[in-house]
Amino acid sequence: MKNTHFALMPTLCVATAILICFLPLIAAGQDMKDAGTYAAAAADAQKALAAYQQNVVNDKNYGKYGFGSVGEARSSQLGAPLPILILGLDQLKAYNPGTGYKPSIAGAQMLWYPVQVAGQTRAKLEMIRKNNQWVAGEFGSKVTADIVAKAQAALPDLLAAKNVPAGYQVALVKAPAVYGQFLYVQSTAGDFMVPALLNPERLNLQNNTVYTADEVLTKLKAAAVDIDPKKVM
Q: Fewer beta carbons within 10 Å, N or C terminal of the chain?
């Protein structure tokens, strides 16, 4: 499957400010029980977005970054981030069905920021923590950013239908080997995953549907069985 992301230019990848305070993370309209989106990343993410707006997006390429015009790109703002957790091929192949998934969301070293215009998601900006600094990662990806935004918008109602109480924590789980991304929910009612996929049927899943984490991981394990590690980026 074709990857639609756009990598940030190397000259724009250097973080310029480090803060030590934290902000509460808002996910799908819910306050997370564990406060903790790294406010240090917020300052660096804003500088990275400004660099894209001024130095990268122009009147010839604004469309590929998800914008309707250069003016729209220049007016875009960052929304509330999601922590990103990575599921590697080795983890998928080693998964033991029935054991579930309990990662540490608070320790996430990557963040996903929606890039919005008038509250509507147009793209995404990822920030990565390296050597105690936040640096810019992928930018653009309108299609995948829109899928994640729709999943986030639907999440409160989906979880309410499953009687999941408020106070849950949300992260974005990426499984690169199977081209997968999911909203991951930790709650007192259990751990759940909501697919946010291009062509979810290829993994026998449906977008905007709540599954137990074990259900999803069991399917991902089956999909990963024959994948050659040498062919995974």
A: C
